[in-house]
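Figure S4 source data
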Amino acid sequence: MRRELKTLAGALAIFLLAVGLVACGGGGDDSGSTSAEAAGQTTSESPSSSKPSGDENKAGKEGHSEASRSEGDEAAGFVPKHHNDSGGGAAQYKEKGGDNSVQEFGDEAESGEFEAVAVALHNFLDARAEQNWAATCDYIAANLIESFEKLSAQAKQLEDKSCAGVLEKLVNPAAKGLIKAEAEQADVRSVRIEGDRAFVIYTATDGAVMLLPMVSEDGAWKASSLAGSPLG
């Protein structure tokens, strides 16, 4: 969808700035930035879900590719947490006369699908909050990782060109508190699924309604954006 294209383009553009500025110590201290800005992202979307999940977050963790920072060991150190989600479906966020493309995307997820997507979202947010970049990469879609690798290959000053190395430079350290708060407060309210794509609607810091697109790869749900962005 059109927002996903903007999301990827925005993330990659900010990555170039991060490599040129943040990696050289010139990153700004935008303490008031949103988590999407902190992660180098502009937009994402997510649908709704009908039931809350009593998910037992025991998502499998896959080993990482070899990199200069022993990513496999780092990823193995990530322990998924248990989260309770309220659910309720996308209908609660429909706006009369507004753009409801996310709220009406595909179909409302059944309880099992809802749980699988919600667990993947929480694992992504928690790993990112812990700054465990290798584990975070486990929950990111392959197309984003490939884009990072292609761009990092052009950045001569970036020593670690792995997914984890790129994320470490891409995410603004000044937003650590905000990212952690979002992970702790994230409450999945809706999951809309169509085929191998899903949109998650969740409430985050101070009740802000966020959305994030996800994709199913080899049976596992992955975040196809680096951060959530406001719904609407």
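Figure S5 source data
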Amino acid sequence: MSRREPLFHWPSWPQLGYAIGLGLLQTAWFAAIYGGANWFTAQREFRVRVHFEFERDMPLVPELVIAYLSLNPLLWLAPFILRTRRELEAFSISLACATAIAGVGFLLFPAEAIFPPARSSDLGGWQAFFNLVEHLALQHNYLPSLHVAFATICALTYSQRASGPARLMLGLWWSAIVVSTLLIHQHYIMDVVTGLGLGWAMVRLVYRRLQRQAGDMSEQIILPNPSSDPEPPV
């Protein structure tokens, strides 16, 4: 039985630089779509209810803000897990497609927060982290949850190279991020469900399809024509 290669590796400097370049492009694309959708929604009064009434009683768990913010380190692991440029490109394209589709959702289903601002006495030492979340998450982009979609893309993509313990670690990390979106009052259940579906679809329809196409191209071999006789030796 062949030994599975380790989950993590150190990329070459050109590979790391290429990954950083893709990341910067994705960041710019995300900022344009996410920020643009939020700005557009702020200009109009139309809103859609995307929450259930019982979600108003959802508890606030400030400690989970760390799990919420850990999405960024999870994304940054890509060049240390994905080995080839083709994998990194497929990963980035999956994130970009998820961002574009979510942007349409934000415009079609603009929503408002139902939770009152958390009091400093409730947040304790986590106040600074919540301030950062409020700065990054903006006010109107709820359905689908890009936070959940990105976490799902990472977990499903990375797990293809993971052993059993590593997959468990990724599953727990992913679960903590998903739960945190609800328990720090950043998303609703419908946001999470649609975010899960979006992330799964991007891995299935974008990432894996691009990987299969790359594999098909690498397996194309030019074979000699069996009907042609070889030239006699001189």
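The longest helix spans residues 13-42. DSSP finds ten helices and no strands in the chain.
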